[in-house]
Every structure is written in structure tokens, then in C-alpha cells.
Amino acid sequence: MAKSTVWDPVLLISQIVSIQTLHYLTLAVLVPPLLTIFAESSSLEYYGGAANVGMVMDWRELAGRPASRATQGDSPWSSFNPVWSGGKQVGSGDVQEGQWDGRVDPIRSWIIAVCWMTASGVDIYYMYTLVRRPRLILDFSLTLIFNHLVLTTYYSKALPTSLFFWAVMAASAALMIIVAEQFCVKREMAEGLTVVPLNEGEDVEMGSLLRRD
Asked: In the Cβ-directed half-sphere of 84, how many Cα atoms lie within 13 Å?
């Protein structure tokens, strides 16, 4: 993608949408198989299965908190209530033999966290390819995190209050900003300058180093 020095809102929006979409597509590839292999099956099934969009979009899944709605006066830890995801009920019923015992599976949240960090690592390549300019990496990285905060708050109908969730978001942003920016800077250092051949008898001047756009 060619670099542009003119502010182009269409290009900017398309880059934001592309990176956000690629980020979620990467998570969609990573999360379901890993949850199926490593997470506790009965709890996972109660919450809609490994392919449930809430595993990516609900911050409570990353935080290791229950996503069930308790009845008035009850705690979500003390009773088995319907599980709601994106405004839809995805699990309900009383505990029966061989089914979920009510405990939150801590492994599930760690799997989702590892997948999120892995996707952030892949985002480095997306930004390196699509954004290219080092000074824009910070903006695009924070925009990706901010957009997810808006979407996960809307999806779960609650603001994220988990320190673990915020720690993962901070580590994700730091990884993308530091590594992607360094890669883009190294590319500009390698490609941005070219030496113009001198004619015989000419002196070497600073003008001999010209920027190649």
C-alpha cells in the first residue's frame, strides 16, 4: 500500500475497519479449537459452546467471571440462572448429574487471554502491512483497543471492571505499539534513503542523499 501524505478519511476508516475485522477473525480462528481442547466441557457448553461469540466479545469471559444473570436478591454464585449473551439466552436449567457444577473454569479465561495476545502479535503484521507509517501505529493500536472496549461494553451491558482484563488490554496495546513501530521504523530506514550516483569530479554533499518516496 502506497504511503499518502494527504489526510484521507476514507483510507483512514478503511484501515481501522480492516484491522479490527482481521483482529476478530484471528481470534475466531484461535479461540474455538483451543477452548474445545483445553477448557472444561460442561461449563463451556452451559455458556453456549466454544464457538459462542461471547467468548470473544464478552469481557467477563476473559476476566473469568460468570456471565449469568441472577434473580433479584441473589448472587450469580449462589444459584443457577439463565446465561445471557448479546441479549439472548444461551443456557439455562438446573444442575443435573454429569452437568456443570457451577464453578467458573479459570482455564477458559487464560486460554482467551493467550489467544488475545497471540492475535495482538498477528496484528503487528497487519499494521506493518496496512498502516506502514510509524507515527500512526500508536493511534491505530489504541483505536483497536478502544473499539473493543465499546463493543464489549455494549455486548455484555456492563463496563469492564476486571483488573485482569485491563492488564491484558494494556499488554496487548504495548506489544502492538512497541514492536510494530520498530518494524516500521526499520523499514523506513532501509527504504527511505537512496544514494544518488555522483558524476566524475563532483564533491559529496548532503544533497546526494535524497529521500525516495
From this structure: 13
Q: Say if CB 172 and CB 146 are below 8 A apart.
A: no
What are 116-171's pLDDT values in tens digits?
A: 999 999 999 999 999 988 989 999 999 999 999 999 999 999 999 999 999 999 99
Half-sphere exposure of 1 (CA within 13 A, CB side): 15
Query: What Å distances lie between residue 92 and 15, 96, 100, CA to CA?
Result: 40, 12, 11
Residues in the chain: 213
| DSSP H stretches of helix in the chain | 9-38, 41-46, 54-57, 59-63, 106-130, 134-156, 163-175, 181-191
**CA–CA dist 100, 40 (Å, integer):** 9
Cα–Cα distance, 23 to 122 (Å, whole number): 8
Euclidean distance between CA atoms 114 and 186, whole angstroms: 28
Contact 3, 213 (CB under 8 A): yes
Q: Could you tell me the sign of the dihedral formed by the alpha carbons of 19, 24, 26, 27, in that order?
A: positive
Q: How far lies 185's CA from each of 18, 106, 143, 207, in Å?
A: 22, 39, 20, 22
